[in-house]
Amino acid sequence: MSDTLLSKIKAREAHVAVIGLGYVGLPLAITVARAGFAAIGFDIDPQKIVAIEAGRSYIEAVPDEVLSAETRQGRFRATTDFARLADCDIIVICVPTPLTKHRDPDLSFITRTCDRIAETLKPGQLIVLESTTYPGTTDEVVRPILERTGLKSAQDFFLGFSPEREDPGNRDFHTSSIPKVVAGDGEAASALVMAFYGAVVQTVVPVSSPATAEAVKLTENIFRAVNIALVNELKVVYEAMGIDIWEVIGAAKTKPFGYMPFYPGPGLGGHCIPIDPFYLTWKSREYELPTRFIELAGEINSAMPRHVVGRLAEALDIHLGKALSRSRVLVIGLAYKKNVPDIRESPSLKLIELIEERGGSAAYHDPHVAEIPKTREYMALKGRKSVPLDEESIRRFDAVLIATDHDAVDYAALARFAPLIVDTRNAFSRRNIEGGTILKA
Question: Of 88, 94, 114, 272, which residue is the catalytic one?
Answer without folding.
Answer: 272
